[in-house]
């Protein structure tokens, strides 16, 4: 007598195909993609403002922030952090908003790693 209450009651719908052989259906997990947050050089944003941005939004101490600011200044661009999408989006928004409010042309972008 059939005792299963659902559509899985038909033997051809069971994961073991009705064979009674133990099987496992495992969905592979994927790590979420990471995003590089980058700061771009320009000729007008004051160095100290960029240092402040790196301290405030990227958790750097003054020496680390000053060194990375100089890297951007000399090379034109540098990765300032790597984050999950929503975190990266938030950081870019915070930097762009502060730069806009101070009328600095500083640009901050993100790119999938
Ligand atoms: N080049 C700027 C200056 O000489 C400083 C600067 C550094 C600007 C890094 C932007 O992302 C930047 N005042």
**What is the count of β-strands?**
3
Output the number of helix runs: 3
Q: Order of strands across the biggest sheet?
A: 2-1-3
Structural class: alpha+beta
What small ligands are held by the chains?
L-tyrosinamide
Classify the beta-strand content into a percent band: 15-25%
Rg, Cα atoms, Å: 26 Å
N to C succession of SSEs: EHHEHE
Spans where pLDDT lies below 50 across 5 or more residues: 1-15
Provide the helix percentage: 25-40%
- Describe the global form: elongated
Task: Compile the SSE list and pairings.
Blueprint: E1 34-40, H1 47-58, H2 62-75, E2 77-84, H3 85-101, E3 107-112
Antiparallel strand pairs: 1-2, 1-3
Helix pairs in contact: 1-2
The protein binds L-tyrosinamide.
Residues 39-43, 45-47, 50, 69, 72-73, 106 line the site of L-tyrosinamide.
Describe what this molecule looks like in 3D.
The chain is built from three helices and three strands; from the N terminus they run βααβαβ. The protein has 113 residues and is of the alpha+beta class. A three-stranded antiparallel beta sheet has the order 2-1-3. 17% of the residues are buried. The protein binds L-tyrosinamide.
Write a brief caption for the model.
The chain has 113 residues and is of the alpha+beta class.
List keywords for this structure.
elongated; disordered N terminus; 113 residues; 3-stranded antiparallel beta sheet; 3 helices
